[in-house]
Every structure is written in structure tokens, then in C-alpha cells.
Amino acid sequence: MPRLSWKLLTAFVAVTLAGACLHFVHDFFPNPAVGLIAPVNESIWEHLKIIYWPFLAGVLLLCRRGGRDCLGPWLLALLAICGAMLAAGYLYHVTAGGDSVAFDVGLYVLLMGAGFLLAAVFNGPAVRQRTDLLLLLTIALGGAMLLFTFLPPDHVLFTDLSGANTWQVIPY
Q: Is 30 helix (H, G, I), strand (E, B) or coil?
């Protein structure tokens, strides 16, 4: 495994801080345009935005000179950490009834770090050959986030979990 470069470390810190700041943007600028990239409520699904958009921006900056071969592993890592965010959020908030901000912040930082590590793990010819498919899946996930911002399905992943003891009122 290659050594951690300053470029990657700086990108990790910038992407992680950008996502953390993005969490509060809609509170300060509540409008539909901001809601497309920032969480509009405390649902598990809306919190994908704090991972997806900053990580994608970081990937595009990191791969701007690497060409098409550079993108595949990063896109697969992005899809993997988004899936992990949904799964962990569901298990913790819905199944276990957890309501800890410390857990949420820790999970967020852990998943961002995992994304940077997974990109190195996934960096192989099999993944690079599937860059087009991974790009389509990444675009589809982004499109779903945009669509579900305005038309969220009636499902627990889209339920606003803000407030005290929300686990008691989660619809099953």
C-alpha cells in the first residue's frame, strides 16, 4: 500500500470539514437550491448528502489529471461508504433506537476515512475497467438524492429523526 501523501491527507481533511459544514448550510440558507446539496432534515437519507457531494468534489479534484482510470476506484469507494452510511444509520437509529450525536459524528469521520482507504484497496484493473458503470451508478445515486429531496418516499430512511426520543415514533 502506498504511503499517505500530503495531498491525500489535505483532501481528506478538506472533504470531511466541507461535509460537516454542509450539514448546517440549509439551516442558515433555507431554500430549495441549497436543499439539493445540503440535508433539509435529520433523516438518514438526507445525511448521505454530507458524504456524497463533498467526497465527489474531492474525487473530481484528485482525479482531474489522472484521467478515466483514476475515477473508478474512487467512485466505488463513494458508493460503498454511502451504502455503509445507510446501513449503519438504519441499524443504529431504527433497529437499536440510538440517538447520540457523538455516534453520528464518529460514524461520519470513520466513513470519510474509509472512503480514502477503500479507493486505494479498490485500485485494480477490474475496477478501472468498470469506471463507466460506476459513473452511471454514482450519477443515479445523485439523481435519487435530488429527487427524494422534494419527493421522499414514505419509508423510515426518509423520516425526520430530529427531536428527543425519536426512536419511539419511528414508523415501522
A: coil
Torsion of CA 66, 22, 105, 78, to 10 degrees: -30
Assess contact for 55 and 144: CB atoms under 8 A: no
- Domain assignment present for residue 172? The answer is no
Side chain identity, residue 47: H
Mean pLDDT of the chain: 89
Residue from 134, 127, 155, 132 nearest 46 by CA: 155
Amino acid 5: pLDDT: 86
Residues of the domain holding 100: 6-161
**Spatial distance between the Cα atoms of 22 and 7, rounded to a whole number of angstroms:** 22
Highest mean pLDDT among 4-13, 58-67, 116-125, 160-169: 116-125
Q: Is the dihedral of CA 4, 6, 8, 9 positive or negative?
A: positive
- In the chain, the number of structural domains is 1
Cell of 95: 433497529
How far apart are the C-alpha atoms of 161 and 88, rounded to whole Å?
15
pLDDT tops 50 at residue 170: no
For residues 87 and 163, the model is more confident at 87
